[in-house]
Design a protein that fits this description.
The chain has about 350 residues and is of the alpha+beta class. The protein contains 9 helices and 17 strands. It folds into 2 domains: about 200 residues, no CATH class; about 140 residues, no CATH class.
């Protein structure tokens, strides 16, 4: 849980980092920016911190040794000597430039920010923020000139849309720090460069992580295996995923046996689920606890990934929120088409 009400911005350094794949430049500033007035600080708080809400934490990682993760090592040096932030911000810019080896990566401003007095899970600590703005928007400016108004436009940053962000909290250094990330741009190979190539992070193995992992296993099993093995219709799949989500929404401690008893009515389905779970964990090289405290925020986040929609060709979509027994599927021999009947008491 975050509490940013006591946070102060101590230092801000801005550099421009181009796309190395396109031979663009790095434009370095000579000094940190002058500390802005109260209004500008409020705008910066909204831009840098408001997008971060309670959710998953990450840890820096490296395949050989954590000290070989450049961002983790550099952040440690800043926490040990805050006065080194400007010099280290140049190194961050160089690391990001080296990671921008895909032609679709956009250049933009990289902000290195030092925050004081963040509250995370009840603990007060400092944090380092790395933020990148890639997308500019056009704004109209209207000004009064004597008795007339004049209009102009300029390109700027929308402070309600942070493109990429990372908060490194000064705690759990040996485990790779507590880290939060945001990446709202890029969907292909270029999307990996912020999280993987630049930061080098993995999900922190806490209750959020375990809850999210088990919900992903449920989703994968229902979509990939349950239908294939049992030839069930889409409403039955939706009904099963609804039961799974409701089990997690009840909270408390996750118990695998209680989960299987509550969700699956057939022993063959239960066995198929266990096999899928074991294969999923092995394939993704995931170590997870069998019992853990369910994280409500992870349930809320994962719930959005469970689709309760039946798509019918390109003409119709049926949103099913419950009572799948009120859906009846059939086949019209004369029209040679499938159909659904929906039974309801009243139209709202």
């Amino acid at each position: 849980m975050f509490d940013f009400s006591t946070v102060t911005i101590d230092t801000v350094v801005v550099h421009h980092v181009g796309c190395s794949a396109e031979d663009e430049e790095i434009l370095l500033s000579d000094n940190p920016i002058a500390m802005p007035d109260e209004m500008m600080q409020e705008l910066l708080f909204n831009y840098f911190l408001k997008p971060f809400r309670e959710g998953a934490f990450w840890n820096f990682t490296h395949e050989t040794d954590l000290q070989n993760n450049n961002v983790h090592r550099t952040a440690s040096e800043i926490f040990e000597n805050q006065g080194s932030l400007y010099k280290k911000s140049i190194y961050f810019a160089e690391l990001l430039y080296d990671a921008a080896h895909h032609p679709k990566i956009k250049g933009g401003e990289l902000y290195t920010v030092y925050f004081k007095d963040c509250v995370v899970d009840g603990e007060i600590m400092d944090a380092i923020g790395l933020f990148k703005s890639e997308n500019k928007e056009t704004y109209l400016r209207v000004e009064r000139e004597e008795k007339d108004f004049e209009m102009a436009y300029e390109n700027g940053i929308n402070i309600k849309k942070l493109d990429k962000g990372c908060l490194i909290f000064n705690t759990e250094k040996e485990q790779g720090y507590k880290v939060c990330i945001i990446d709202k741009t890029g969907k292909g190979e270029e999307a990996l460069y912020w999280k993987d190539d630049f930061l080098g992070v993995k999900l922190r193995e806490d209750n959020f992580y375990h809850t999210q992992t088990h919900l992903n296993i449920c989703k994968g099993f229902i979509e990939e295996v349950y239908n294939e093995k049992n030839a069930v219709e889409r409403p039955e799949q939706i009904d099963l995923q609804k039961k799974a989500v409701e089990f997690f929404e009840e909270g408390g401690v996750y118990d695998p046996e209680k989960f299987e008893e509550a969700i699956f009515e057939d022993s063959d389905v239960t066995e198929a689920f266990r096999e899928y779970k074991e294969q999923y964990l092995d394939t993704h090289e995931i170590k997870t606890f069998e019992e853990f405290d369910i994280a409500p925020k992870a349930v809320k986040t994962a719930k959005r990934q469970f689709k309760n929609i039946i798509k019918l060709d390109k003409n119709f979509r049926i949103h099913v929120d419950g009572n799948t027994e009120r859906l009846e599927k059939g086949y019209d021999e004369e029209k040679k088409l499938h159909y659904y009947k929906l039974y309801f008491r009243e139209e709202e």
